[in-house]
TrEMBL record:
Residue ranges of domain Glycosyltransferase subfamily 4-like N-terminal in the record: 13-174, 359-519
Gene3D superfamilies in alphabetical order: Glycogen Phosphorylase B
Protein name: Glycosyltransferase involved in cell wall biosynthesis
Keyword Transferase tagged: yes
Organism annotation: Prosthecobacter vanneervenii
């Protein structure tokens, strides 16, 4: 993904340091990072060394406005980012102004303080602050590096729903504990630039009340303010116990000189990098109750009220050494910064599916969502309910139901679809199954933006007469609309060719078969003579053929056990030898208990999950030659013609006579060709670049496996 950051300068500062760490981490994740900066600075070399592209706009003076903005527009249009991320107030405004001029990327604002210091910057500073408050609602996302900053700006008009907290990341490799020389007196240090917001006066007044300690102040900045503080220290009699040092490059060595770091800031502190760095070096901290200092330290006894030097002195006197590094490693590392940020910046994928019931297509959808955490996922189900809807919501995913009766659209459901699409602002629309694909087409036009659409077709198509009238109409409509999606993905070779013969654009075809989690589907202890038929009760599953075959087997092999599992199977009329278990949630265990797994489907089967799951469990399979069953099974198992109970029964009897309980070759085939990992990689690449040309192996399935499709 192309991400462009905008920042005023690349000089020494906490925000700039965080940008360097974040940009480097995003580059390592494979993102294309650019940094547009108004002025140069020493961090430019570090950014370029990390693999980021830097572009200095070169603001020549305070009043270089028109020329500066035109140069900024040119740079942004050259990059054409998918995400435009501002860093600090004026950069946030620039990102918003650039949005319509460089392809309408998602605009992300970065809030890096806990309250504004705009009053210190004159009329232009106050104007910038008011503009930020007024225009914040137009940003797509607002990332705050502190909880305090989020609360402060939300109270001033920033939209709370768009605001997310991502604390700074501390480089725990760079900031590590170092050996310290023992000292007779504890050393308390303050690190920060010379600025009134750091309230060094409170630190000095507290130091005067702690006679048995020594003190260190490290920082550069406002020379006049520094002179005032030096004069105050002299008047308090601290000269013999206080050392002043300018800003240092080797901060781990500085922290190693301290027993305790003190942060006495009066305002404006969001996430204090200094506190995080010191704690990563194993140095305990005491801080004023400003910004997120209390949250970072995690101990209220080490927090004092702003400006209360007596309370600070009490904290110093009560100080006891301890090692706070582990808290930084677990909660505030650079890895956590990159993880949290990339999750928020990730592409938004809106999945539109016919339903979230118990079928194989729905299960595959859930596996993909869970297995692709690098994307943000939202799901729209055209119909209500479904066990997977509950599972997704419990996993923290956004799931919407349009509650269409039997998938038939109503004005209320279309209006709800419009509202969800407009609110979600997805980067990719993924249609799942026929009606979901048609809904994705509607969503594309509701989005009012050129957003890539991907269709996923989940079945083979032997004869439209087998489909319901409404479904047949949708299938034909999709053929006419197949120019619109960026890709049409199929999970079956047969299905791809059959749909192409109906008019679906062959140039859009990409084959991505189903994948199986080999850690979930593992061999077990099969029960000899147990035959299972798993699948929902639907005409395409042809339970009549299975039941007839079971009767034949029972006559020739008395004692054979038959189990049926699936939604709606309770309605089947079966002989006493068949046990109906209905819908179950222990399918891996039940599958592994089988001697034979049977698929008796007569039509419509695309990529048969039950066959792949049984093969992953090393269970011998007997199946009808439908869809891509032959491709999935390869040289394993036994294939029979559809609708032939005698052939199905004989194949099962042959397996029983052979006394084969395990088929390790089946599991090996699934591991080699149909692992969930390979499928996740293909979908990740597709969602990242929907318009990229798919691999020839995926887009050109073998025509010899396709069956003719009657168009009547």
């Amino acid at each position: 993904m192309k991400i462009a950051f905008i920042i005023r300068d690349l000089g020494h500062g906490g925000a700039q340091r965080q940008l360097v760490l974040l940009a480097g981490g995003l580059v390592q994740q494979g993102h294309e990072i650019s940094v547009l900066h108004f002025y140069g600075g020493p961090f430019r070399d570090e950014l370029e060394s990390a693999g980021a592209n830097t572009v200095c706009i070169g603001k020549r003076s305070r009043w270089d406005l028109v020329g500066f903005f035109l140069r900024l527009v040119k740079a942004a249009r050259t990059i054409r980012p998918e995400v435009l991320h501002g860093y600090l107030a004026e950069s946030n405004l620039m990102a918003l102004f650039l949005k319509p001029l460089c392809g309408f990327p998602r605009v992300v604002w970065g809030v890096r303080d806990s309250q504004t210091d705009a009053h210190l910057w004159g009329v232009l500073g106050r104007l910038s602050f008011r503009l930020n408050c007024l225009l914040a609602r137009f940003a797509d996302l607002i990332i705050c590096n502190s909880q305090a900053g989020r609360d402060y700006y939300a109270a001033r008009g920033y939209p709370l729903k768009k605001m997310h907290g991502v604390p700074n990341g501390i480089d725990t490799e760079k900031f590590q504990p170092q050996q310290r020389k023992p000292s007779a007196l504890p050393t308390f240090g303050l690190v920060g630039r010379m600025n009134p917001m750091k309230d060094i006066a409170t630190f000095l007044r507290a130091a005067a009340l702690v006679p048995h300690a020594q003190f260190l102040i490290i920082g550069s900045g406002d020379a006049a303010y520094e002179q005032q503080m030096r004069s105050l220290a002299t008047s308090l009699g601290l000269d013999s116990r206080l050392i002043w040092m300018p800003a240092q490059k080797d901060m781990p060595a500085i922290y190693a000189r301290l027993d305790c770091l003190v942060n006495s800031s009066a305002f404006g502190e969001g996430f204090s990098n200094v506190i995080g760095e010191a704690m990563a070096c194993g140095v305990p901290c005491i801080a004023s109750d400003v910004g997120d200092s209390a949250w970072i330290i995690g101990d209220k006894s080490r927090i004092f009220p702003v400006g209360d030097h007596a309370a600070l002195a009490q904290c110093m006197r009560a100080f006891t050494p301890h090692d706070p590094r582990q808290r930084i490693v677990e909660e505030f590392s650079v890895a956590r910064l990159i993880q949290r940020t990339s999750r928020l910046l990730a592409k938004k994928v809106l999945w539109l599916t016919t339903g979230l019931g118990s079928g194989g297509a729905e299960m595959m959808l859930v596996q993909l969502i869970r297995g692709l955490p690098q994307f943000q996922h939202s799901v729209i189900s055209l119909t209500s309910g479904g066990k997977h809807a509950t599972a997704l919501r419990e996993g923290g995913y956004e799931v919407h139901s349009l509650d269409m009766p039997a998938g038939k659209p109503t004005l209320a459901s279309l209006w709800r679809l419009f509202r969800i699409v407009r609110q979600t602002k997805a980067d990719v629309l993924m249609g799942w199954m026929y009606h979901g694909c048609f809904a994705a087409v509607l969503a594309r036009f509701m989005r009012f933006k050129s957003v890539p659409v991907i269709w996923n077709v989940r079945q083979s198509l032997y004869d439209l007469k087998h489909e319901k009238r409404g479904s047949a109409l949708v299938i034909r409509a999709l053929a006419s609309l197949s120019w619109l999606p960026a890709r049409i993905t199929y999970n079956t070779q047969t299905g791809a060719r059959q749909h192409e013969s109906l008019g679906y654009r062959a140039s859009k075809t990409q084959l991505i078969p189903n994948g199986f989690d080999l850690a979930k589907w593992q061999p077990g202890t099969p029960i000899p003579g147990r035959i299972g038929r798993f699948g929902r009760n639907a005409p395409m599953k042809d339970y009549a053929t299975f039941i007839t075959a079971a009767k034949i087997i029972a006559e020739k092999k008395p004692g054979t056990e038959f189990i049926v599992v699936g939604a709606g199977t309770e309605e089947l009329q079966v002989p006493a030898c068949i046990q109906i278990l209905g819908e179950r949630h222990d399918l891996p265990e039940l599958t592994a208990s089988l001697n034979i797994a049977v698929s008796s489907s007569a039509f419509g089967e695309g990529f048969p999950n039950v066959i792949g799951e049984a093969m992953a469990c090393s269970v011998p399979v007997v199946a009808t030659d439908i869809g891509d069953t032959r491709w999935v099974m390869g040289d394993t198992g036994r294939l029979v013609p559809p609708g032939d109970p005698a052939a199905l029964a004989q194949a099962c009897i042959d397996v029983l006579d052979s006394a084969i309980l395990h088929d390790p070759n089946s599991r090996a085939r699934i591991a080699q060709h149909f692992s969930i990992e390979s499928v996740l990689q293909k979908f990740a690449a597709l969602l990242d670049s929907p318009h990229a040309v798919s691999p020839a192996a995926d887009s050109s399935p073998s025509p010899s496996l396709a069956s003719p499709l009657p168009h009547s």
